[in-house]
Amino acid sequence: MNILIIRNSANPAAFDASMLLCAYLDSQGISHRETETMPLSMESVQDVTTELDIPSFDMVVSLGGDGTMLHSARLVGKHRVPILGINFGHLGFLVNSSEDGVVPIVAAALAGDVVREERANLHIDLINYDDEVIASRFALNELAVTRGELGRVIDFDIRISGDYVMAMRGDGLVVSTATGSTGYALSAGGPLVSPLFKGLIVVPLAPHTLLSRTILTDSSDIVEIDLERNSETREASLFVDGELIVPDERIKRVLVRKSNNPTVVLRYKSKGFYSAISNTFFKVGY
């Protein structure tokens, strides 16, 4: 058994929990490695994944909030190493509560006393003006195409699996997974969607129209976002799971589809999706 511990570098509680966990794993003779969250560029994700040798681990323990969980998912990528998230942050919809203590939770996971869930991810291709794919990204939550540095509204066309859907002007667009439906997509007016849903959720951001609606696609659909109508002074910004993407070239189109590789999430004392919604969004004081 080999465990990777990823902790939020800015969270003292996560650091203390990692020290407790390391002591426990040492006492059980279980090998482990620790690392902290860090900014990840398009190039550095692969470098860090290779340096850590992600496929060599049997489980990842993510100590922080939802942001740390998203960071962990990016590092795991296509390798399907299960991730056990334990909440030491503010919003903890993707992670388990830490109230039982980090050691009992990890011990339960090692004993197989957890629920294993496969969450759909996004595969994102960035295409330049020569119609070449210059970069591909992976997302557990969402892709957000938004207004650029100058703050001007952007124009874009949307096609789904080759069919023209609409032309739009506005602040942008979110393409989300079911997991991401509780994040940016929800704030933009999108629906809460069960994690069993494998399609894409397409949510316009402040569209300059009266007719815009969220679209739920099939799991096999490809969403194409055409940005060609924007001038160089009206460039869009691209965010993948909340992190700004800065490509080397101007982007003409973005293609989004369901990835063939899910993220495997481990749930401790899982009460189900709808209980999590109630506890996270509707509890007193939220």
What are the secondary-structure elements, in order, as H or E? EHEHEHEHEEEEEEEHEEEEEEEH
Distance between the termini: 39 Å
Q: What's the pLDDT, averaged over the residues?
A: 90
What number of domains? 2
| Radius of gyration based on Cα positions | 20 Å
How many strands, which pairing sense, and closed or not: the largest β-sheet?
6 strands, antiparallel
Helical content class: 10-25%
Strand content: 25-35%
Name the CATH superfamily classification of the largest domain: Probable inorganic polyphosphate/atp-NAD kinase, domain 1
Give a description of the structure.
By secondary structure, the chain is an alpha+beta fold. Helices cover 20% and strands 34% of the residues. The protein is built from six helices and 18 strands. The chain has helices spanning 12-27, 44-52, 66-76, 102-110, 184-187, 273-281, and strands spanning 2-7, 31-36, 59-64, 83-87, 115-119, 122-127, 133-139, 142-147, 154-160, 163-170, 172-176, 201-205, 215-216, 222-226, 236-240, 243-245, 253-258, 263-267. The strands form four sheets. A six-stranded antiparallel beta sheet has the order 7-6-17-14-9-10. It has a six-stranded antiparallel beta sheet with strand order 13-12-11-8-15-16, with no helix packed on it. A hairpin with a 5-residue loop joins strand 6 and strand 7 (133-139). The longest helix is centred in the first third of the chain and has 16 residues, at 12-27. The two termini are 39 Å apart.
